[in-house]
Write a structure and sequence with these properties.
Growth Hormone, Chain: A; mainly alpha; globular; about 0% strand
Length: about 400
């Protein structure tokens, strides 16, 4: 009963975080790359500069997550999960309000500062993973890590919808971020009063450093059991990150999608992710091992990304969503479960924090890589790189223990 209550609280906490993060997605073209939009902020910048700024705005979030995730994981092992999670949620709320202010006064520096702060706070997903590991038996971790995928799925239903439709109705791109800031305050109150501490056997406080993310990469590659999994996790998220960071720009470029159209598209992706978590993941994990599932999921995701480049019909674009969503759900559930099983109980926060660092690093590099490809070779070519990286992850994935 206690486990279910804690998992429910974590689901709601992560859901509200993701809604706030997802609000930005449909607004990227209107703010940074579509010079016909009334909300466009980059008048006088070249197309290449617009793509770079749009990519950097997304990349900063991932870069700061990369630096903060292992630090927060270690801190939560030493000082407990709840304190760190509460702090992260509160700081993320402030970052959303800063972004709203940056749009209102047309200040790129303030927008960049907001994304830096949001990236640090957004690294709290590694604490959520560690908390799930605290209250879950190893054999059930893959299933319960699926809650994270479900929260992301539902968050990406509501976040882009809210962002897209608030702007469509009001014409004010700052309002969605004010709403996200208020959600963050609600989230802060919720976990303060509802979430108990789950980590009672604390590690001894060591030397904490913001540069530990780089040190952890070295450590990760000394562990022969988990090293291949960290590499695969990085490559897969790098490929998918190229897709997610530029999909809104691609949808506006190829199909002329408005903010509301883009919000509807991402809401559909979110619905499919949630359904995949409920049906596909539970069905697969009840019958097959994590490795067997991942052997199938990586090629499916790669093919789904390659197909986006050659599809020109909106209905065919939507037809690809269930396959891409199912593949991502299977990967994001089973890959952390394999990593979690490979380390001791007192290193769950650190190990998942390291994995979070690899994923965040990929999300920092992906938008910059995507912006360079889009500026030099054209936006559709980003899907060649995206699918190719996922396929490379599949080639490197250890098929046996």
């Amino acid at each position: 009963m206690r486990e279910k209550r804690i998992l429910t609280i974590l689901f709601v906490t992560l859901l509200l975080d993701v809604i706030g993060i997802g609000i930005l997605i449909p607004l990227v073209p209107a703010l940074f790359t579509d010079n016909t939009a009334p909300t466009f902020m980059l008048t006088g910048y070249s197309i290449g500069e617009q793509y770079f700024i749009a990519g950097l705005m997304t990349a900063l979030f991932g870069i700061m997550q990369f630096l903060a995730a292992p630090l927060l994981g270690d801190l939560s092992d030493t000082y407990g999960r709840k304190k760190l999670l509460t702090l992260g949620v509160g700081v993320l709320a402030v970052a959303q309000l800063l972004f709203a202010a940056g749009i209102a006064i047309v200040s790129l520096p303030l927008l960049f500062i907001s994304r830096l702060v949001a990236g640090v706070a957004g690294a709290n997903f590694s604490i959520v993973q560690a908390t799930i590991a605290d209250v879950t038996e190893p054999k059930h971790r893959a299933r319960n890590f699926g809650l994270i995928g479900g929260a992301f799925g539902l968050g990406f239903i509501l976040g882009p919808l809210i962002g897209g439709y608030i702007v469509a109705l009001t014409g004010n791109p700052a309002l969605p971020f004010l709403f996200a800031g208020l959600l963050g305050v609600v989230n802060l109150v919720f976990i303060t009063f509802m979430l108990p501490e789950t980590h009672h056997v604390r590690t001894v406080a060591g030397k904490f450093s913001v540069f530990k993310a780089f040190h952890n990469i070295k450590i990760a590659y000394l562990d022969v059991d988990t090293r291949p999994l960290y590499t695969v996790s990085f490559l897969q998220m790098l490929g998918f990150g190229i897709h997610t960071s530029f999909s809104a720009v691609f949808l506006e470029y190829r199909y002329g999608f408005s903010e509301a159209d883009t919000g509807t598209y991402f809401a559909t992706v979110g619905v499919c992710i949630v359904l995949s978590q409920i049906f596909v993941v539970r069905f697969a994990n009840a019958r097959y091992s994590e490795r067997a599932i991942l052997r199938f999921a990586f090629p499916l995701l790669a093919l789904s990304l390659f197909a986006q480049m050659v599809v020109f019909n909106v209905w065919l674009l939507y037809a690809l969503i269930p396959f891409m969503s199912a593949a991502m759900s299977l990967i994001t559930t089973n890959l952390p479960a394999l990593i979690s099983k490979g380390v001791s109980a007192n290193r769950q926060g650190a190990a998942l924090g390291i994995n979070g660092s690899f994923q965040a690093l990929s999300q920092g590099i992906a938008p910059l890589l995507g912006s360079g490809i889009a500026a030099v070779l054209g936006i559709p070519i980003i899907y060649v790189m995206a699918g190719g990286l996922v396929l490379f992850a599949y080639v490197l994935f250890p098929k046996t223990t």
